Design the sequence.
């Protein structure tokens, strides 16, 4: 059954920029991790966080690309992480935990969109693996640092496209269904399911952690029709 939505009382809308939203807010002393923070939406997120005073860690699967994109930004650490590889996700999270820092903000932003059918080493469809499973594992592993921050925020970047497909629990991995990926309407079923899974997980996590744990929410940067 759908959960009734309550509009957020905000002066911002679809055309507001990140810089406008963060104006007047100080993130001095805060630590943030932004996955995919070296391209597109993630890169802009890192820029505004740094401008507001945060220290930002960007886990990247391509360090060269990240070095280039983030050149000149102060207070940014580049780390290695491949979201579709569970060992790499754990290694990154464990390095962060070993630093004993609190994590104030985790932005689960990285993702791939509508590629041809590919699977990770475990056999999971690659969008499920990258966009959802990798971030689920990352968030769970980082929980001690998020709890330490007392009031941390976990933000999952989803999409308006989630409305075009629920998550298919009976065949999440496209083993018994046709996998479509071209740019036409209804061809991004798998991608829309991944966006739905991010929304569902985020809302579930938020309910679970109400007692002082990190609060979780999802954002949609816009939409594609699926
Ligand atoms: N742009 C849109 O119109 C739109 C609309 C709705 C939702 N979204 C969502 O918004 C998010 C950001 O979109 P964007 O357009 O800014 O994407 P983007 O420019 O393609 O950036 C995606 C980032 O994720 C990283 N990434 C991909 N696979 C990874 C992996 N296996 N391990 C670690 N990092 C990985 C990429 O690294 P590499 O460069 O190394 O590949 C890149 O830095 C995505 O989750 C997307 O689904 C975007």
Sequence:
């Amino acid at each position: 059954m759908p959960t009734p939505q309550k509009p957020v009382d905000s002066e911002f809308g679809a055309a507001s920029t990140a810089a406008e939203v963060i104006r007047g807010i100080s993130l001095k002393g805060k630590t943030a991790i932004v996955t995919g923070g070296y391209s597109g939406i993630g890169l802009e997120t890192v820029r505004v966080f740094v401008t507001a005073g945060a220290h930002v860690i960007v886990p990247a699967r391509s360090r060269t690309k990240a070095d280039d994109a983030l050149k000149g930004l102060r207070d940014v650490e580049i780390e290695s992480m491949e979201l579709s590889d569970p060992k790499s996700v754990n290694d990154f999270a464990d390095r962060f935990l070993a630093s004993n820092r609190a994590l104030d903000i985790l932005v689960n932003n990285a993702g791939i969109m509508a590629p041809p059918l590919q699977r990770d080493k475990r056999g999971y469809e690659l969008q499920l693996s990258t966009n959802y499973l990798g971030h689920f594992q990352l968030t769970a592993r980082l929980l001690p640092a998020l709890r330490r921050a007392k009031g941390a925020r976990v933000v999952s970047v989803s999409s308006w496209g989630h409305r075009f497909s629920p998550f298919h629990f009976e065949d999440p991995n496209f083993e018994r269904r046709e996998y479509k990926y071209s740019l036409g309407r209804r061809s991004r079923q798998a991608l829309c399911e991944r966006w739905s899974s991010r929304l569902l997980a985020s809302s579930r996590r938020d309910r679970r952690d109400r007692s002082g744990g990190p609060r979780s929410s999802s954002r949609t940067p816009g939409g594609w029709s699926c």
Observations:
- Strands lie at 31-34, 55-60, 76-80, 105-108, 153-157, 215-219.
- The pocket of NAP is lined by residues 36, 38-42, 61-62, 65, 81-84, 109-113, 130-131, 157, 159, 221-222 (CB under 6 Å).
- The first helix runs from residue 18 to 22.
- Helices lie at 18-22, 40-51, 63-69, 86-98, 126-148, 189-208.
